[in-house]
Specification:
alpha/beta; eight-stranded mixed beta sheet; two-stranded antiparallel sheet
Length: 266
């Protein structure tokens, strides 16, 4: 199995001379969740963040990288999310009628991808601080290593709530374990999964149906694709993000205020 770990500084030079990627790369933005912890009737990705909907930040970054090769997965308040996104960009939509996990969301989106797409960037609609530079570097790392899956990781002093990157004795990623399913030992791992990936479309289509919901959340986890790749000797890579703040997700009002403060400091 091939394995490549990249740090952002070693790859940032790629973005300096690459203004765009081939038109065979698409982005899938996951934006179907209800966001019940926001304690609001408004869909989570539509909450205002510094005067703009949360999803608008991720969408703008994705457009700069992939143009209109973008599929937004909608679910909760689908019509409102669709209208907000459509007013900002010309993209495709996939409707996740039941929220059965991130793996299921990507399943819904795959059928909407244009036929020429060879690699897929998976993004979260509630992670607004992710930068174009980081995503460019992730894509280049993925293409350069010819990985089946390349994920964006980050080291956190307090990794609570995030999936942990489990490695073998040689430091190679063997799987991702979600917080709810992690043992006490695994919860001590400080390198976490950001939920952002670049994945070969062929691998994605061949393996997505193999996901199972035998976990604490009874959902189809996209993270399980890493373990499937490892078991099939498909190359898996990881790039560490330089700034942990880039992968902050918004799940609560407190998260929203934290990210809004960071935007104000930029």
């Amino acid at each position: 199995m091939g394995y490549v770990t990249h740090d952002l500084p070693f790859l940032s030079f790629f973005a300096a001379f690459m203004n765009s990627h081939p038109d065979n790369i698409a982005a899938i933005i996951l934006a179907a969740g209800k966001g019940t912890r926001m304690k609001s009737d408004k869909a989570k990705v539509l909450h205002p963040l510094a005067g703009r909907p949360i999803i608008s930040y991720v969408l703008a970054t994705a457009v700069n990288i992939c143009g209109r090769n973008i599929v937004v997965v909608i679910g909760d308040q689908a019509d409102a999310v669709r209208q907000t996104v459509a007013e900002a960009a010309d993209v495709w939509f996939a409707h996740q009628h039941e929220q059965l996990g991130t793996g299921h969301a990507v399943q819904c989106a795959l059928t909407e991808l244009p036929p020429n797409i060879e690699n897929v960037l998976i993004l979260c609609g509630d992670v607004p601080l992710i930068t174009e530079q980081t995503l460019n570097s992730l894509i280049h790392a993925h293409l350069h290593a010819q990985n089946a899956v390349t994920l964006l990781g980050v080291d956190l002093e307090n990794p609570h709530g995030y999936g942990r990157l489990v490695t073998d004795q040689r430091g190679r990623i063997i799987r991702i374990v979600e917080e709810a399913d992690a043992t006490e030992s695994e919860k001590g791992i400080s390198t976490i999964n950001s939920g952002i990936y670049c994945i070969q479309r062929g691998f994605l289509e061949q393996t997505i149906a193999r996901l199972e919901s035998n976990n604490a959340q009874n959902e189809l986890y996209l993270t399980d694709l890493v373990e499937i790749a490892v078991s099939n000797n498909a190359p898996v890579g990881m790039m560490r993000a330089k700034e942990p703040s880039e992968i902050l997700g918004i799940n609560t009002v407190a998260d929203l205020k934290q990210v809004e403060a960071l935007i104000g400091d930029l």
